[in-house]
Amino acid sequence: MGKVLVVTKVLPTSIDVDLNLLYEEIKRRLPENIELRGSRIEDIAYGLKALKLNFVIPDNLEGGTTKIEEFLSSIEGVEHAEVEFISLVRE
Fold this sequence. Notes:
The chain is an alpha+beta fold.
């Protein structure tokens, strides 16, 4: 079974959302079979910042990247989540 790196951009509902707390909530609620392997905060515009997250998932994960987008969108404080990049991981 192979693994896939999925880079996502998470936009908060407002500039008042603490992205560090949002990150901790995402980590706490992470579904089984999805690993969080990195994060950073990226400036967007006018004080708005996005949370960039790197996930590693099995290449046969049911629902694929849609499962990640749905999971992220279900968390309070998340306005929108989208996959920006996908690549196979060689281990």
